[in-house]
Amino acid sequence: xxxxxxxxxxxxxVPDDAEVLKRLYRTMRxxxxxELKVETLRTSGRLQGSAHLxxxxxxxxxxxxxxxxxxDYVASTHRGHGHAIAKGVDVxxxxxxxxxxxxxxxxxxxxxxxxxxTTVGMLGATGIVGAGTPIALGAALSAKTRKTRxxxxxxxxxxxxxxxxxxxxxxxxxxxxxxxxxxxxxxxYAESTSAEYALSTRDLARRAAAFEVxxxxxxxxxxxxxxxxxxxxxxxxxxxxxxxxxxxxTYRYYGHFLGDDPLRxxxxxxxxxxxxxxxxxxxxxxxxxxPHLSQDDLHSIGEExxxxxERAVEFAEASPLPEVAELTTEVxx
Length: 333
Ligand SMILES: Cc1ncc(C[n+]2csc(CCOP(=O)(O)OP(=O)(O)O)c2C)c(N)n1
Ligand SMILES: [Mg+2]
What we know:
Blueprint: H1 18-43, H2 58-65, E1 73-75, H3 81-87, H4 91-98, E2 122-124, H5 132-146, E3 152-157, H6 164-175, E4 180-186, E5 189-190, E6 193-194, H7 195-198, E7 215-219, H8 223-238, E8 244-249, H9 268-275, H10 279-288, H11 295-318
Parallel strand pairs: 1-2, 1-3, 3-4, 4-8, 7-8
Antiparallel strand pairs: 5-6
Helix pairs in contact: 1-2, 1-3, 1-11, 2-3, 2-8, 4-11, 5-6
């Protein structure tokens, strides 16, 4: 079972800013609504193909990307829908990509695991575990060379901590003091293998110390904790202080991919424990007595998000499939 940094309720500061709060809430709700819709569409057979759902982990992508500007970079993973949405990729074009339509982010040729949109700094999802991190490193090196003050984020999972490129990148980011933030989403499992079994350190953040990269263990089911630590890391990166490493302890509510069912490798008690620490519910509780967001505000954001996803599905289903000639464009030969 993934041990969270703290059993205590939220201790991270709640931002005293209505716009920030609305943005955090809207993003988490939008990611969840997108993912739950994908699950329904897939189960009913309206949508083909598989996907790795991000449900449960929304606070990580949301808290991280809320500290980024549009021209900052993120490189994602196979579980990338949440990263893309939080970075500002249009959900209609994402849905169209899942449907394989010409209007998709990748003209329908990439699908769930290759969503990219460089116009908002989303460098791409990838099916290769650990492969996004060197791409983020390259973007960080480019930003430093061009002196742009841009920041580059690599998202990766606990499973990727068994991949060599992560450590090569930590070293290079450290020696060159790159404006890079390593965000490890420790959701306790790599497919069906538990982190407890496969990884020698319980707190993966400790591994960053070997590279003298500042690191923190973050409660990845608390958007305020993620937002808080990410603020420090981004400040350090923009001020020339070099890379940081955030280990966000989190949990995926669904299986490794759509179709990974039943989940024999984990218990119902464990699932209930993490669902009981749901990031959206904790947000709602944390702001309930505050001055900024009323129940009506939360409700209307929830409604707005559901409508947005309905429009995304309508857009995707009304879009044409790519022309056959598209098969040979944007292909390296
Ligand atoms: C280099 C490589 N090895 C193995 C795989 C097969 N694989 C796909 S996802 C995955 C588990 C990844 O776990 P983690 O990094 O913790 O991410 P999570 O699925 O939990 O988000 C594995 C082993 C792969 N895609 N790429
Ligand atoms: Mg994992």
